[in-house]
User: What shape does this take?
Amino acid sequence: MDDRAAVIAANDRFYRAFEARDLEAMSRVWSCTDGDACIHPGWEPVYGSEAVMEAWAGIFSTGMPMKFLVSDVVVQLLGDLARVHNVENIRFGDGEPIGRVAVTHLFIRRPSGWRLVLHHGSPIAAENEATPRAREPEYH
Amino acid sequence: MDDRAAVIAANDRFYRAFEARDLEAMSRVWSCTDGDACIHPGWEPVYGSEAVMEAWAGIFSTGMPMKFLVSDVVVQLLGDLARVHNVENIRFGDGEPIGRVAVTHLFIRRPSGWRLVLHHGSPIAAENEATPRAREPEYH
Assistant: This one.
């Protein structure tokens, strides 16, 4: 698998862990270092693996399970780092879509594979949904 | 100036350009490549230097000038990349604070200095303002 495909696979594992509310699978997605950072929609930044995983535990234990249709995926390889942007099209269970979130993911290359060091999600306001969609940037 | 100080100086130039609504100064902050990406609060992602600068031109030409008190600055050096998180405490002109935005910045090292390739800002909901503040992560 080439780097780009490996990064996309790691990005997919993030969403499968999120949908399954599987804390162990989610921890395997992350680098699990003090450099981990997470900014959930509406939240202050959360720093460090322990706090990041605590936040996921909280999210997984409340509310309804969410499903994600991931669109507008843009991958940029930057040596041992990879940046992914995508849009989360979210619904609760099998219900209607409840909103869209613009995401930045930053992965770092580890001997064991690409690991997440940043998740930053921000709600897309309904009135902005007609703005131009993602296109693939050139690699540096 | 060491890398960390140079990154913080580049981050500060971003906010001075933003406050001054100075499009030329803002363009000097960015890498100005197709890899540039910007996610403003509530927006879809915007990709590529041309679209990113068009978006800034739009922001600078409407509404009231904003002032930024930047807090909770966290810098992480990752080789030729640097990640900055901070919180923008925003007010219009000399008025009262109007809100806080959690930010991810990604800078890339160029011969001319550190240049911005990503700005991602997301509003912090008022009810979340009591959550723990930033602490410095360990370097990788």
About this structure: The two ends of chain A are 21 Å apart (CA to CA).
